Amino acid sequence: MSKQILVTGGTGFIGSHTVVELQNSGFEVVIVDNLSNSKVEVLKQIQEISGILPKFEQFDLTDKQKVKDFFQRYPDLDAIIHFAASKAVGESVEKPLMYYNNNLNSLMNIMECMIEYKVPNLVFSSSCTVYGQPDRLPVTEQTPRKEAESPYGNTKTICEDIIRDTIAAYSGLKGIALRYFNPIGAHATAKIGELPLGVPNNLIPFLTQTVAGIRPELSVFGNDYDTPDGSAIRDYIHVVDLAKAHVVAIERLLTNKNKKNYEYFNVGTGNGVSVLEIIKSFERATGEKVPHKIVVRRAGDIEKIYADTSLANEELGWKAESTLDETLLSAWKWQKHIM
């Protein structure tokens, strides 16, 4: 009998790609999503790619009673991948209470039910924001976490602590936090990709919408950082590579290959790329020009960060495989598909 996995936020950008990879690997998936930043049509697109329509329930995970009702109706869950969270850095600076309420309460409701209904395994969607602006690069898992630059980043730090402390207190629980760097790109079929509702908060959808003529120009936030070209540096990973890391993490927990009850891994490419280099790579990969202008720095942004992924490579047997040009071309194909 196939293992049953709850994927919260499973109609979102990373969640939908992970659902596809899970189903392709033989897992049965149940999605819970409140559709606050995604569309129900994604379910059909997942089915078109994988041949399987995942089970789906729409409700808000901050509603404790609804979470409890869900666990009562799904007594055979083997593991949970928790994506569901508010995730825009800038918005979190403006609306901190919304971020703390949503991101913390949803996790705590899930973990309370994991204990009550004996669901032992959790993979958590964390972020490199827990490192703040690190003193040395690349960051390893031993790099000290710093005070977050935004309420969003702080919610990820606090959520990691909640998971660590809860697992320490309850011997039946195991968990893996995957600290993402910057997921971009889209599925090779161009049937799913990043589809923010309203004005995008992330670089790549804003870039592709600009090239598509939906927005007049791309804003590059700052050209006075201490980087080779003055623009901020990040580690951009193809979303499908990231999705595959979740499948590996789930399999690690289900087969008891984890070395501790709580583990955490950096999930990136190991390469730092600036915003201006992203623009050049996109233009090279697609043959399209990117209208852009330099504007002032954005609140909550850090200067530069990229991963040392050797622990994930060795322990999980996972490695990011896509090139930056391939990844950006997939994002452009997705943009053209939804126009």
From TrEMBL:
EC class of the enzyme, as a word: isomerase
Pfam families, per database record: Epimerase
Catalytic reactions on record: UDP-alpha-D-glucose = UDP-alpha-D-galactose
Keywords linked to the UniProt accession: Carbohydrate metabolism, Galactose metabolism, Isomerase, NAD
Single annotated GO MF: UDP-glucose 4-epimerase activity
Gene3D superfamilies for this protein: NAD(P)-binding Rossmann-like Domain, UDP-galactose 4-epimerase, domain 1
Pathway listed: Carbohydrate metabolism; galactose metabolism
GO biological process, one term: galactose metabolic process
Record EC number: 5.1.3.2
Residue span(s) of domain NAD-dependent epimerase/dehydratase: 5-267
Matching InterPro entries: Epimerase_deHydtase, NAD(P)-bd_dom_sf, UDP_G4E
One annotated Gene Ontology cellular component of this protein: cytosol
Cofactor: NAD(+)
The keyword Isomerase appears for this protein: yes
Subunit structure: Homodimer.
Protein family according to the UniProt entry: Belongs to the NAD(P)-dependent epimerase/dehydratase family.
Name by which UniProt lists this protein: UDP-glucose 4-epimerase
